[in-house]
Amino acid sequence: MTQPGSGVTDVAIAMPPPRDALARPLRDLRLSVIDACNFRCPYCMPADRIAEDHGLDAASRLSFDEIETLVRGFARLGVRKLRLTGGEPLLRKRLPELVVRLARIDGIDDLALTTNGSLLARHASALREAGLRRITVSLDTLDPDAFRALSGGRGELRDVLYGIEAAGAAGFSPIKLNCVIQRGVNDDGIETLAAFAREHGHVLRFIEYMDVGTCNGWSRERVVSSVELRDRIAVHWPLRALDANYRGEVAERYAYEDGRGEVGFVSSVSAPFCGDCHRARVSADGQLYTCLFAGQGHDLRAVLADGEMALADHVAALWAVRADRYSEVRSEAGASRKHVEMYLVGG
Ligand code: SAM
């Protein structure tokens, strides 16, 4: 059977899964479909640092054919989880058409998307019909004024809440909510967010504020650790630790003792998990980043023209020499200060 965009005629033949220099396999791929975003969250893409016209032109983005070839190549290497991200992925035109193509790739068992939710009400049912399985919405506060400020004056909370509702109505369940808490910015809303997620059956994930990129003015004092977050929530709703769903799961999960769902914590700053990082990231113009904190990407575009096998061989060679463990060494002298921007690799 011919694989569209692949240039080969067989169904995916598994290659021996590559291991990196620290014996970590490649399992997850985060793929940015666009670098543009309609928000300017100060901790990610601050308006005063990122010019309005900063972005790639449409021709510089990987085409749907190239993306399909790329994902087929990664699937050959053992990638089973694919998350589409951005920038804001819902700004990519005809995204459901891409989802249809990716959802049918052999080996990709988990196809997910992370969005700021502002355009989700319009797109949720088309994405579901296209074969998207899971949606994560970033939501840092339930206070409309704080929301406006946290989106750089570009977003309205009510649009995101409509989007979440529409995703539920389209059949996404549970919906995951990603929340980044910064001390002195939105740490007064932790309990409100937890109560909202519990009430609606959403899974809340707190992600520690990270020193990704170079333009968000990160400081350790602003980080609210997972332990502090967990303790604050447990005062109101006692928690019980859950086992990881799979090796390398980044969130520590807790069930509410009263049976009203679960909450998770991603402790990239306070308890780094580099030893279990099985994730590659590809930007919208086809740069491979082997770490969220990498200073430099590897251009995959040229090799994509030679099809999925060539891509898989090339990525396997790059993965074999991967030794990144930035989160474990961030405090050490000599840790690189040059990092790819978060909006280019999408989290
Ligand atoms: N626009 C989409 C969205 O808002 O979900 C996808 C891209 S956004 C870069 C992906 C995730 O990265 C969001 O959940 C956002 O909160 C998170 N993020 C951005 N900067 C961060 C930082 N400095 N520390 C932790 N998470 C961050």
Q: What integer is the average pLDDT? A: 92
Oligomeric state of this protein: single chain
For the biggest β-sheet, the strand order reads 7-8-9-6-5-4-3-2-1-10-11-12
Q: Measured on Cα atoms, how large is the radius of gyration?
A: 19 Å
Figure out the total of helices: 11
Which consecutive residue ranges, at least 5 long each, have pLDDT under 50? 1-11
Structural class: alpha/beta
Distance between the termini: 35 Å
User: Which molecules are bound in this entry?
Assistant: S-adenosylmethionine
- Assess the beta-strand content as a share of residues: 15-25%
Q: How helical, in percent, are the residues?
A: 25-40%
Number of strands: 12
Q: Which sheet architecture does the biggest sheet show?
A: 12 strands, mixed
Anisotropy-based shape: globular
**How do the SSEs run, as a string of H and E?**
EHEHEHEHHEHEHEEEEEEHHHH
Could you write a compact summary of the structure shown?
The protein is an alpha/beta fold and 347 residues long. The protein contains 11 helices and 12 strands.
Structure, described:
29% of the residues lie in helices and 16% in strands. Strands 7-8-9-6-5-4-3-2-1-10-11-12 form a twelve-stranded mixed sheet. It has helices at 64-76, 95-103, 120-130, 144-150, 157-169, 190-200, 226-236, 301-304, 308-320, 326-329, 342-345, and strands spanning 28-32, 81-85, 110-115, 134-138, 176-181, 203-208, 239-241, 252-256, 262-266, 279-282, 287-289, 298-299. Helix 2 (95-103) runs parallel beside helix 3 (120-130). A hairpin with an 8-residue loop joins strand 11 (287-289) and strand 12. It is α/β, with parallel strands linked by helices and 347 residues long. The longest helix is centred in the first third of the chain and has 13 residues, at 64-76. The structure holds S-adenosylmethionine (SAM). S-adenosylmethionine binds next to strand 3, strand 5 and helix 11.
